[in-house]
# Entry
Amino acid sequence: MIEFRSVTKQFPDGTVAVDAFDLAIPPRKTTVLVGSSGCGKTTLLRMINRMIDPSSGHILIDGEDTGSLEPVKLRRRIGYVMQNSGLMPHRKVIDNVATVPILGGVPKKQARDDAMKLLDTVGLDRSLALKYPRQLSGGQQQRVGVARGLAADPNILLMDEPFGAVDPIVRAELQQETIRLQEGLGKTVVFVTHDIDEAFLLGHQVVILQKGGHIAQVGTPAEILAHPANDFVASFVGADRGKRALRIQRVGDRDVVVDENGTPTGVLQP
Amino acid sequence: MNLIEQGFAWILDPENISGPSGWVARLLEQLAYTFGAVAIAAVIAVPLGYLVGHTGKGRDIAVSLSGGFRALPSLGLLILLALGLGIGFRAPLVTFVILAIPPILAGAYAGFEAVDRRTIDAARAIGMTEWQVVTRVEVPLGLPLLIGGLRSSVLQVVATATLAGYVAGGALGAFIFEAFALRDYPQALGASILVTALALVLEGIFALLQKLVVPRGVVVKEQREVRSRSSRTRAVMGTPIREGK
# Structure
């Protein structure tokens, strides 16, 4: 369980990225922070592992105030996956994955063996282990990034727009993989994105943010779609238009679902 | 026999080769000045450059310092120092150290600045200490530019070390200054050819070394002259990572 208690972050230039933010992130579920640029979502994520320290307020992990923990130790027990993978270009794939355990004192041989198994876990062929990141495709690099995030077997995995830079087909694959991994490993995943479809796909809990880190609405995707808290949320999730504004049309003895333009998208199952 | 041939004849004359004042000994003195000065300069400039490159602090000072040092006229400095330190090897050595510092300093901090900010950010985010970020990420990735700085510095000093002869500091310049006094042009030319050859050989060795130290897995972008490059574009890349892109 991760708790934000009245967290505020003001940057030295005066920008208030996050203002009196409260949120409880349930364990072993995926929570997605979603909002447009400048809403403070990345700042919030980076405050969990103290890459950014709050100006005021507290962040608690399982009841423990992160402000009292040593940042380096804290970061080693929290997985972190970033956009553009952030892999070290001068290290082989396997060494990139094994970095954190080796920093933590695991013998090199064992760390590499474990890293090999992690390549399987994230769906990468073991033959890629001895290649350098540059030799991999964008999607493969992101998988390596995820494997590195999981290497120290953390309870928490932070993902900062990890699929923002890959093409739509690979993104869809990686999203399914993330769902599978989260269910299989039972990690607490905190995921940042600006893509509402991605948020609804991955999130058990979705947090829609407005400028300044203000929460517009928190809930399951179904709750948010059914009862958008305000006009901002309704327009952000697109509940009243396009592919989400569905109607039922009776055709003979079946209910056909059609979208805003009357284009059929599916049939209700009896 | 024209002058060039006479120059080579001087080099090949056994009388000029060996002994304490033969050119082999003088060439070794030239090398000793070069590597002595570059080594001392590296001990001073590499940690300083790394500090500037890692923290981003004092960058303006480092830039103007290395620019200013370059503008110092070597011969003037040498004579000034010789007035204080006396003739012999000390004044030339100090001069060459001062000459060697700017390119090394620039190579060290430019090497760090050239590392992708996202790589450093990720290294920190997965739990590397600042020291580990420096030693495991910035140093290996900055090495090609540092070697580039060492290379320019070695070349500058090996050529300038000829001036040591002006204040009785030995090295190949001793032949040249002596030759001018005696109007012995074949000797002046022979010694100049040796200095040139030495500089070319060192250049070749460093060019090779620079290729070898590029970390595997890294593509080297077109390397421009370390001394003249502006890192303004990288400074922009280095702004702290903020909100969703």
Observations:
- The longest helix of chain B spans residues 23-55.
- The domain at 17-217 of chain B is CATH 1.10.3720.10 (MetI-like fold).
- The interface with chain A takes residues 116, 118-119, 121-129, 132, 136-137, 140-141, 215-219, 241-245 of chain B (CB under 8 Å).
- Residues 194 and 240 of chain B are 51 Å apart (CA to CA).
